[in-house]
Specification:
By secondary structure, the chain is α+β, with helices and mostly antiparallel strands. It contains 20 helices and twelve strands. Helix 11 (210-222) crosses helix 18 (395-413). The longest helix has 29 residues, at 431-459. It comes from Lactobacillus porci. InterPro entries: DUF2252.
C-alpha cells in the first residue's frame, strides 16, 4: 500500500474554496449522496496489509531509544494500539474510493475519544473540544466520525459493555453527529465562528445524565489547578547553584546536548515571530531558563518533544511544550527518513492552522518554529488541560460522553466553507446511524486482529517483548 511520491498530501486551505451559495452547497451534498450513497460509506471492506511493516516504516523516523517504551504503551490494550496507528486507518479508508463521500473539510484526523478534552480560553473559561491536531488535514468528514466510532467500540469492549449496548451507543453517536450538523447549519457564519462550549454548557445543556454531570463537575474543580505553577512544582528542582531545573527521568525525560539546547533557543526566537503581537510583547518579559526532552502520549511517543521553562522578570514561570510536527502518519510510511525531514518544513503551520479553525478559542501561545531542519509547534503545557477517561465510565456516562464528542465534532467540521455539503448529505438520513454503527463494529474487529498480529511480532519466537 505504498503511496506514490506525487500523491503525498499537502495542506492547502484553498482546496476548500468552492464559489457557491450555501443552498448550492447543500444541493451538492445531496448529489454526492446519490453518487456515493450511504450504503457505500457504510460498507466494511476487509483489507490485506502488513501492519508490522507499516508500523516499522513509521518508527524509522522516531527516536530509537524510545521505541521499547512506545511499544509497551501502545500494546496495553487494543484501544492504545489504535491510538498509535492513525496512519494505518487512513490508508484503509483511502483504499476504496467508491466508499468515500468525497466531501472535504478540515478534519482532526485522529478524533478518538481521548483526543477530546478541556482547555482554557484566553478569558480563563474551561472549554471542551478537540485537543490534538497532529494528524489534522483536509479530508472526508466521515474519516473523523469513523475514527471516533471505532474508538467507542474498542473502549466499550474493554469496559465490558455487551454488543447490543455498544451498538446502541454507536447509533446514538451518529445521530448526535447529525444533530450537530443540523445545529451548526442553523447559525450565521459569524455566530458559528465565535461559538464555544464551556463546561457549564455541557453540564446544563448537552447531557441529561446525572452521572455524566457529576463527572463534569469533578473536572471543573480539578482542571483549573493544572497550570504552570503545578508543572514547576512537579517537574523541577533547584540545582546546586539554586537554579530551577527540570527533573531527569530517562528515557522519558532526558537532558539535551548543549548544541541542541542552543538550536532550540534559536528556534524560540522564530516561534516568537509566529504568535500575535500581544503575546510577543508578553514573552519579552520572559527568558528561557531550561529545556528538556519529555515524551508524551501514545501515538506521539518516540517523536521529538521538549519542555521549555520560561522565567519572568517577576520570578513567575511559564512552561511551553515544543512538539515535533511530523508529516501525516499516512504519508510517513511512504517516505524515507530524509524525505520525511524534507517534508516537515510546513507541518507545524498545518497543525496550528487546523487547531485555530477546529478549536475556535485556541491557546494564545500556539505557534511554530524550525530546529535543525525539523518543524515544531509550540503550546502551553497542561494549562487548565484535562480530559475524561472513557475506560472509567459506566454505561450511562459513557453513552452521554460519546454523544457529546460526536456533537462537538460535527460543529467543528462546520467551520469549513464546504460544510453545508455535509448537511445536504446527512440531513434526515437515519440509515446512516445503523450503517456506520455496523461499519465501526466490523472495523474494530479488524483493529483487534491487527493488535494481535503486532503483539505476536513483538513477542518474537521466544515470547519476550522486543525492545
Amino acid at each position: 500500500m505504498k503511496t506514490d511520491k506525487h500523491e503525498i498530501e499537502s495542506f492547502k486551505i484553498d482546496q476548500l474554496f468552492i464559489g457557491d451559495s450555501k443552498e448550492d452547497l447543500i444541493k451538492l451534498g445531496k448529489a454526492r449522496r446519490l453518487t456515493y450513497p450511504i450504503r457505500a460509506i457504510s460498507t466494511f471492506n476487509p483489507v490485506d496489509r502488513d501492519v508490522v511493516h507499516l508500523i516499522r516504516l513509521t518508527e524509522e523516523k522516531m527516536i530509537p531509544e524510545l521505541l521499547g517504551m512506545r511499544h509497551e504503551r501502545m500494546m496495553q490494550n487494543p484501544f492504545s494500539y489504535f491510538r498509535a496507528t492513525a496512519g494505518i486507518m487512513e490508508a484503509d479508508l483511502r483504499a476504496f474510493d467508491d466508499c468515500l463521500s468525497h466531501i472535504p473539510v478540515i478534519i482532526c484526523g485522529d478524533s478518538h475519544l481521548t483526543n477530546f478534552g478541556f482547555f482554557a480560553s484566553p478569558e480563563r473559561q474551561l472549554l471542551f473540544g478537540l485537543n490534538d491536531f497532529d494528524e489534522a488535514r483536509i479530508g472526508n468528514w466521515e474519516f473523523d466520525l469513523k475514527r471516533l466510532l471505532t474508538s467507542i467500540v474498542l473502549t466499550g469492549r474493554i469496559n465490558g459493555f455487551d454488543q447490543d449496548a455498544i451498538k446502541n451507543v454507536l447509533r446514538n453517536s451518529v445521530h448526535g453527529y447529525r444533530r450537530g450538523i443540523d445545529y451548526a447549519n442553523s447559525f450565521d457564519l459569524l455566530d458559528l465562528f465565535y461559538a464555544s462550549y464551556n463546561i457549564n454548557d455541557l453540564i446544563e445543556e448537552m447531557t441529561e445524565s446525572e452521572q455524566m454531570k457529576a463527572v463534569l463537575k469533578k473536572v471543573a474543580q480539578r482542571a483549573p489547578k493544572n497550570n504552570s505553577d503545578k508543572v514547576v512544582k512537579k517537574f523541577t528542582h533547584l540545582d546546586a547553584d539554586g537554579q530551577l531545573r527540570f527533573n531527569e527521568n530517562p528515557p522519558r525525560a532526558r537532558r539535551v546536548s548543549p548544541g541542541l539546547y542552543a538550536q532550540l533557543l534559536q528556534g524560540m526566537g522564530e516561534y516568537q515571530q509566529s504568535v500575535s503581537d500581544d503575546v510577543r510583547v508578553l514573552l519579552m518579559s520572559y527568558q528561557v531558563t531550561d529545556i528538556i526532552r519529555y515524551s508524551v502520549g501514545v501515538g506521539s511517543w518516540g517523536t521529538r518533544c521538549y519542555l521549555a521553562l520560561l522565567t519572568g522578570k517577576d520570578g513567575s514561570h511559564l512552561v511551553l511544550q515544543i512538539k515535533e510536527a511530523m508529516p501525516l502518519r499516512y504519508n510517513l510510511s511512504a517516505l524515507t527518513v530524509s524525505e520525511s525531514r524534507s517534508q516537515e518544513k510546513d507541518e507545524g503551520k498545518r497543525i496550528i492552522t487546523a487547531q485555530r479553525v477546529l478549536q475556535t478559542h485556541y491557546d494564545p501561545f500556539l505557534g511554530a518554529m524550525h530546529v535543525n531542519g525539523r518543524s515544531f509547534y509550540v503550546r502551553q503545557f497542561r494549562d487548565m488541560k484535562d480530559s475524561i477517561d472513557p475506560l472509567k465510565l459506566d454505561l450511562e456516562s459513557f453513552s452521554a460522553y460519546c454523544l457529546i464528542c460526536s456533537f462537538i465534532l460535527a460543529v467543528a467540521h462546520y467551520e469549513s466553507p464546504t460544510a453545508p455539503m455535509i448537511y445536504g448529505y446527512v440531513h434526515k438520513q437515519r440509515d446512516l446511524d445503523d450503517g456506520l454503527a455496523s461499519w465501526a463494529l466490523a472495523y474494530a474487529d479488524q483493529m483487534e486482529r491487527d493488535y494481535a498480529a503486532f503483539s505476536k511480532y513483538l513477542q518474537g519466537e521466544d515470547g519476550d517483548l522486543d525492545d
